[in-house]
Amino acid sequence: MNFDISHILDKWEYHPGQVVVRKFMGKDGQEKIQLRVDLGLLQMNAEGRPDGKRPCGAPSLYEHHLNKLSQHKAKHDGNDNDFTLAPEEISKIQLEALQYHHRYICLLQLEDYQGVVRDTERNLNVFDFVEEYAESDEMIWSLQQFRPQVLMVQTRAKATLRLGKEDFKGAIIEIEKGIEKIREFYQKYSRSDLLEQSAEIQSLQHWLEDVTTKRPLSKREKLEIDLSEAVRREDYERAAQVRDQLRNLKPSE
Q: pTM of this prediction?
């Protein structure tokens, strides 16, 4: 067996600062993703756990612990008070979450936005699970500190899906919701210092301004602009006509 992959790397140049990624069908019939990094490449499955493993027979380590929680509740009349995650278990869960992080970054570059939403939502659920059952605030923060970044990526995916349908209003709503979720996160953890300098919020706010500027105007907005222009020109006959048109518009227009 030839373990040298130099011939692959020679034909696939690495570009610093760029996400260089490709998708292909593997020999096992499953879709694969490869990410070019400076010293080689990362390969992962496009669905399921990225490395293809089934820890303890479960689809993922996170789902294994969900199963353990269900078993615990079944033995304790639905009570989960004594269920906890040990630090070493959380460390393994965090490493698994990192696999999904690598994949959703690749999927974003590949414009598989549904896949991005799936994997980011999965990691957000993992963060919540650890917060619920971790033994210390330090272990909780070890994952929660990444929530703003995950929310930003998820927001970009959700809003881009809306833009693909020319739903500018829906995209704007998604971006505003994403910004608000990040703000709520920092407020929950009393980190106003991070809130003021959040690169995630700044990025989404700039994108929001860009989307808002480029979106087509509604019929009502166009008429309101016409009305302002008519009043400015002191064309009161035209202004009266536009006012009548505005009164006849449906609330949704």
A: 0.84
Is a pLDDT exceeding 80 seen at residue 222?
no
- Condensed to tens digits (0 to 9), the pLDDT of residues 173-208 reads 999 999 999 999 999 988 777 787 899 999 999 999
3-state SS of 151-212 is: HHHHHHHHHHHHHHCCCHHHHHHHHHHHHHHHHHHHHHCCCHHHHHCCHHHHHHHHHHHHHH
Give the span between the Cα atoms of 3 and 94, in whole angstroms. Answer: 30
Through-space distance between the first and last CA atoms of the chain, rounded to whole angstroms: 67
DSSP 83: -
Structure-token pair, residue 119: 């994997």
Alpha-carbon gap, residue 113 to 184, rounded angstroms? 24
